[in-house]
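stage 2 :: seqdesign
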């Protein structure tokens, strides 16, 4: 029987899976509900300005990085230069600079805490060593938790004697390691780490799994990139590759029903069109599964997946602005975190991404587009009155914080709009506006992650809720695992 793969959702995970399979010669159809590719890494235009929807900082493009390997396999290498100065981290009492060079970065941090120099250097020495060991598993990229005999065998085959050094850290949090280095009470240092972790791990130093935290704190040093135009270019490259290899890509197709048909599947979109497939890869928020699968199929999903559907992650408020940078003392830097010291959510911490002055894919000369996001709890948005009040309060809180760092910022705004939870639900399919995947705590990471195996025959899931987690690298890795399970090959 000829096998045909249906991929639902053209986020980074679905595009990765679909393009890899098409490159390998598989018959692939990819359906996307939106008119844009990329999901949370897509784009939209307003007048003469282009805005990245969410994800903005390019990662995984270094030699051997996840995206670099995918693009190389597809024959579509992306040539961009890493940032030597990755970002500013503006806190209430200090501004830290994240440098790509590890020694320069540690020297800069130590300069803020000279009395803790030896402890901080020892802490980073451990972080870098642990991350380097974990990274040796990035090449084979075993799936967790292993769900088949082949995956268990591949995991065992991927292990080396050096990985034994990771065992003492396996069930530890970063908080425990900070205590070990006597740094847990160095609050400004810890808060700086929290700011980095909330954006990548969706939680702070107290609860984050240490092995993943080490990789998250080290990965910027492997390579962080400004991608002209935005990360939607990842999506466009993979979409082009899929169609060039004979795949079918259809936009504005919302799947409303997915049913078993014999040994295969049949999907029905909102227009009544049907699509037959032997294998299905769903790159949709897992909360949508209960809407497109019948209750008897939902009951057969893996327990971890069903539990995840009932779980709750972060919502976000995102601000999109166009800035007349000629009204500022100097152009805005590409990436900046701002922390007011009032927590990691609700405008107390936010990530600010700006187009570079010469990036005319995003804005004409003299202007910059800016995407700003802050974590928020869904309970803050659960009534119409609270919804509008939260949007107004958080927007003002963010603008006030930026104004203190960038005098004249408000006067330089020529366009502004917001993406609150309902917008994320409407345009990106994120049920209740939940984004970013689960916090990478000990009870949700590694062997406790959600597998790409759904529990139903030949039905796979990928995206930011699936191992290894959020971000474009995590989504791509889950897509790789889904493609491997369909093809029975390593692929990359």
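stage 2 :: out
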């Amino acid at each position: 029987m000829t096998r045909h793969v249906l991929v639902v959702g053209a986020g980074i995970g679905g595009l990765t899976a679909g393009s890899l399979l098409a490159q390998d010669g598989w018959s692939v159809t990819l359906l996307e509900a939106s008119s844009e590719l990329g999901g949370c890494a897509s784009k939209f235009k307003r007048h003469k300005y282009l805005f990245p929807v969410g994800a903005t900082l390019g990662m995984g493009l270094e030699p051997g990085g996840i995206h670099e390997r995918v693009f190389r396999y597809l024959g579509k290498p992306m040539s961009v230069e890493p940032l030597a100065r990755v970002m500013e981290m503006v806190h209430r009492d200090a501004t830290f600079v994240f440098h790509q060079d590890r020694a320069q970065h540690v020297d800069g941090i130590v300069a803020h805490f000279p009395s803790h120099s030896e402890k901080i250097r020892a802490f980073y020495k451990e972080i870098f060593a642990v991350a380097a060991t974990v990274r040796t598993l990035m090449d084979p990229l075993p799936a967790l938790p292993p769900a088949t005999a082949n995956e268990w065998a591949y995991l065992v085959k991927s292990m080396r004697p050096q990985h034994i050094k990771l065992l003492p850290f396996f069930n530890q949090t970063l908080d425990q390691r900070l205590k070990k280095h006597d740094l847990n009470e160095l609050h400004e240092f810890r808060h700086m780490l929290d700011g980095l972790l909330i954006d990548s791990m969706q939680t702070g130093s107290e609860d984050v799994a240490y092995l993943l935290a080490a990789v998250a704190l080290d990965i910027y040093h492997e390579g962080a990139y400004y991608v002209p135009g935005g990360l939607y270019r990842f999506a466009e490259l993979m979409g082009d590759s899929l169609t060039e290899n004979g795949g079918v890509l259809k936009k504005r197709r919302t799947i409303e029903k997915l049913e078993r048909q014999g040994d295969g599947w049949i999907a029905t979109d909102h227009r009544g069109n049907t699509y037959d497939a032997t294998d299905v890869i769903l790159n949709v928020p897992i909360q949508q599964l209960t809407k497109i699968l019948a209750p008897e199929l939902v009951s057969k999903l893996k327990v971890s997946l069903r539990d995840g559907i009932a779980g709750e992650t972060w919502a976000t408020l995102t601000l999109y602005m166009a800035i007349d940078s000629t009204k500022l003392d100097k152009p805005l830097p590409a990436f900046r975190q701002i922390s007011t010291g009032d927590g990691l959510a609700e405008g107390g911490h936010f990530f600010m991404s700006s187009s570079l002055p010469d990036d005319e894919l995003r804005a004409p000369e003299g202007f910059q587009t800016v995407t700003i996001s802050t974590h928020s709890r869904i309970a803050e948005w659960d009534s119409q009155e609270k919804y509008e009040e939260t949007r107004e309060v958080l927007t003002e809180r963010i603008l006030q914080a930026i104004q203190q760092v960038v005098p004249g910022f408000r006067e330089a705004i020529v366009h502004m709009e917001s993406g609150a939870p309902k917008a994320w639900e409407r345009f990106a399919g994120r049920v209740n506006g939940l984004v970013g995947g689960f916090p990478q705590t000990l009870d949700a990471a590694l062997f406790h992650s959600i597998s790409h195996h759904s529990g139903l025959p030949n039905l796979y899931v990928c995206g930011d809720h699936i191992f290894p987690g959020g971000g474009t690298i995590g989504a791509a890795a889950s897509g790789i695992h889904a493609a491997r399970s369909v093809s029975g090959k390593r692929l990359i």
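stage 3 :: structure notes
- The chain has a mean pLDDT of 96.
- Residues 384-405 form the longest helix (22 residues).
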